[in-house]
Every structure is written in structure tokens, then in C-alpha cells.
Amino acid sequence: MEQTGLLDLDNPIHMFVLHWVFLQRINYALHEWMDSFNNHPLSTEHNWTPNQLWINGMLREDNPLAIGGLDDDPHDTRFYGEDLDGPTPFEDSDNCVIVSKVHIPGINSEELVFQLTQSIDALKLSSCFGIDIFIEVLQFVVQLIEHEQSR
Q: For a surface tag, which of 28, 84, 104, 112 has the fewest beta carbons within 10 Å of its beta carbon?
């Protein structure tokens, strides 16, 4: 989209629209993948699904969680669940992505999101991976901003 001129990464309106459209689409795709994975048969587990395995494990009598029991009550909870000798989190890794909220100067983002949600479905069928929806939302937002500024 950048190469074709549809997306300007320095334009807060473009970034706002990009987030609004594609975060919903990505989250929906991830949710569908999760549902598919959790309900697919595992040949190594007699064709039970991960959901069936989890439910079966929760219903077993020897499961301490099933009868309301837990592990021994720890006396020092500062480090409970933390392995001090284990590997550290990936704090120094470069694989962390931070997506900060985009604010359009002079525009109430909550009001804009409400109007977008009422007017356009970001999850509707797309003929080109959501780019057509991005263009539609961008035009809608630009018109709203122009209308607000003309008052």
C-alpha cells in the first residue's frame, strides 16, 4: 500500500484507519485459527481434539483443580510461579512489537470510532485483502474531518 501511494506512514489519519481496519481483521483471523486448531483431531491422541483433551483432564478425579484443591499454599509468594534458575524473558529481544494508539489532532477518537463502527463493517468480505475497505474507511474519515473543520 505504501508503494502504490495508498498509505502514508507519516499521516496520522492513514495510520488511524490502518489500525482500525486491520487490527480487527487480524484479530478475527487469529480467533478463527484458534477455534480451528482447538477443534481439530489429533491422531496421536486417538483423534481427540485439544478441547476434548482439556475437558477430559479437568473432569478427572485426580486433577487437583477439579475438586477445588490446589498445590501447597506457598509461604513466600514473591517468587511463586517463577523459576529463578530458568531462562529470562525476552527483554533484550528485537521480536517485540509495540503498536501505540494513533491520535488525530483536533479529533475525538472515541467519537470517530463510534461513527465508524456504526457505518462500516471492517470484517466484511474484501476483494483484495482489506485494501478496498481501507480506502472506503479512509474516504469516510477524511469526509468526517472536513465536515468537522468546516463548522
A: 84
